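anyone seen this seq b4? input:
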Amino acid sequence: MRTIVLGGTRFIGRAVVEELLAAGHEVLVVHRGQHEPQGLPDVPHLHVHRRELASRSTELRAFAAEGLIDLSAMTGGDATTALDAVPGGLSMVVASSIDVYRAFSSLWAGTVTDAVPLTEESPMRTGPPPDRAYVMEGYDYEPAEYEKLDVEAAYLDRGGVVCRLPMVYGPHDFKHREDFVLGRLRAERRRIPTGAGGLLWSRGHAADLAHGMRLALEHAGVRGEVFNLCESQCAPLRLWMEWILEAAGVETELVRVSDELLPEDLEITGNIAQHWMASAEKAREMLGWVHGDPKERVRDSVRWHLAHAPPDDPRDFAADERALDAAGPA
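predicted toks r here
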């Protein structure tokens, strides 16, 4: 299949391109040219901001694509601009997020509204995403316009497939999602304050999620469908931290402290009543999607991140020290 990938240069985009190429697709990567991937096979690139895709529609159509995977649509305008620029009749997949569910707003509000695991039929948010002010590094959109529900609606209206993704981890993660633990190990912290760590927060390894999106693209019978893609077993936050430590091979103690003493980046380990765990049963049944062993996937991710530490980490650990002092000696 000849496939256009919008935003295929970093992290999950890179994983999607690798997955497509391994399956024999011919790929055109469309991006702004600000993040040229190193180590990927040579594929054609079209450099253009997605707001200006219409100006390059001739080149997009000349590629004679049969499929499209959109990884960087953050607003309804992002989606419609892309859809208007590519030929009609394509098999299409767009990456969305499990932040579209009401449970995400409840998690932020400290309320409990939904049973888990969340299915594709679970209640959606009725208001804007509570973290809308946050703009992911490397993306260019107005925070006030961020809304994956608008992205989903635009693609579903044209027969696209929506893949709702969880917290994504793995090699090339520029957000360094495991760094709330690994950053402390690099600083030789041997005691880490933590809350109860009971939150169930769905995760997925980038390579596994890329595999699921490829299956959704290739399956002719799922147009207009929505799929959660996430690991079937969800380790609570505390257990996930223990897996990270075990993979790093460093003896470090997780010290239980009261929630009010938790450092800001560890507040997620505190007492959070609304779980944010989804079910991917539909993807397993309709797409035949399977993923790797979660603990082995954590090992894979930690190995990469230990070998590719962020160049600068200016954090101080005064809040850690205050919490640990209150907890008492080791």
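DSSP finds eleven helices and eleven strands in the chain. The mean pLDDT is 93. kinda curious what u guys think
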